[in-house]
Design brief:
alpha/beta; Rossmann fold; Herpes Virus-1; 2 domains; six-stranded mixed β-sheet; three-stranded mixed β-sheet; 13 helices; VWF_A; VWFA domain-containing protein
């Protein structure tokens, strides 16, 4: 028995000049766009909780739209229709931007399993960003890279290597019919079989530590972020911790400029020690062991500095564990009575105060 698992899928599409070749009429890019439209429509019809983002790459990579629900399928189609061929193929940059979009989504609470669908003819130019390094990074984050190769197979087959590294699926497509079949297989590829004992990657403390966002210092804020923080919290309070409601750190007595940090997602201010203490008070043991915390305001996954976590552990160890010895019940000695008749009839024939018999 199986069920559908909603996914966050990044469509990473090659729009370089070589995608204008007409060996797959009318040209490679248009055929790929039609296949992607079919894939998105089919997946949304069977699973309305999945979401799609679109990244295109030629001379540079660009995120066209963030993860989008079925209500905005027209926006996805319009963006796909607007794509034109130009420049060379910076495949590494496209993968890097796709992974960055997924990591940002994984930091949110209740994030869906990620996947990248890379569509290209495999004719790439070497850039600073190595596609194979990006594939190994994706492998460490448990992100599968499925690949559609269109046109002629080159040597070496870089797309197949990317899929092999990340345990994704590789499809070779020489015409529009094979592209349609490949799109159908990916659209129908989000079933989970019951009885699987594999631990979700989100339950791995090392994984959470790896993807968590770094807190921002006061000097790290951009002008827009600082202005936003002032608008939300006010001119006088945007440098006050939202946990202890003070600008002075209650643990170190330092000022907010020294130990103050901001959530990069919602610009909520904290003292790093207050945030660590708040995280330690939560019931999620995986979060505790990972050295991360959820922002109390937006639940974004944040990385607590290692030195703060270590100080907290040392403080707990220095206190020691005092085990209270269990107290023995107080036993009162019974008085010996030679003649029980002196107790009277009421005491002799009354019920036992223990067993009531």
């Amino acid at each position: 028995m199986s069920e559908r698992i909603p996914e966050n899928i990044v469509i990473c599409l090659d729009t370089s000049r070589s995608m204008y070749k007409k060996d797959i009429p009318p040209n490679r890019l248009i055929c790929c766009i039609n296949a992607v439209k079919s894939l998105i429509t089919e997946r949304f019809n069977s699973d309305s909780l999945s979401a799609f983002a679109i990244v295109k790459f030629s001379g540079k990579a660009e995120k066209m739209i963030d993860f989008t629900a079925p209500n905005y399928i027209n926006n996805l189609n319009e963006i796909l229709d607007s794509m034109k061929c130009s420049g060379y193929s910076a495949l590494g940059d496209g993968l890097a931007l796709s992974i960055k979009a997924i990591i940002s989504e994984l930091r949110k609470i209740g994030a869906k399993p990620p996947r990248i669908l890379l569509i290209s003819d495999g004719k790439i130019m070497k850039t600073i960003v190595d596609p194979l390094k990006m594939a190994r990074l994706a492998q460490g984050l448990n992100i599968k890279i499925d690949t559609f190769l269109v046109g002629e197979i080159g040597q070496p087959n870089i797309l197949k290597r990317l899929s092999d590294i990340t345990d994704g699926r590789y499809f070779y497509n020489s015409d529009s019919e094979s592209l349609a079949r490949s799109a159908h297989e990916i659209a129908d590829d989000n079933y989970k079989t019951y009885g699987s004992n594999k631990e979700p990657i989100s339950e791995n403390p090392a994984f959470l530590r790896k993807i968590a966002a770094d807190l921002l210092r006061v000097q790290d804020l951009t002008k827009d972020q600082e202005q936003r923080a002032k608008q939300i919290r006010g001119q006088g309070d945007f440098k006050k911790c939202s946990i202890c409601f003070s600008d002075s750190n209650p643990y170190t007595k330092g000022s907010f400029y020294v130990t103050g940090r901001y959530c990069p997602n919602c610009t909520t201010p904290f003292h790093i020690h207050c945030l660590a203490g708040w995280a330690d008070s939560q019931k999620d043991h995986v979060i505790k062991r990972s050295g991360t915390a959820r922002c109390p305001h937006c639940f974004y996954l944040l990385r607590i500095p290692t030195e703060v976590s270590q100080i907290q552990k040392l403080r707990v160890l220095s206190r020691g564990i005092k085990e209270d010895q269990p107290k023995l019940p107080e036993i009162l000695p019974a008085k010996f009575i030679e003649n029980v008749a002196h107790l009277g009839e009421e005491m002799l024939f009354n019920a036992c105060p223990v067993c009531h018999l």
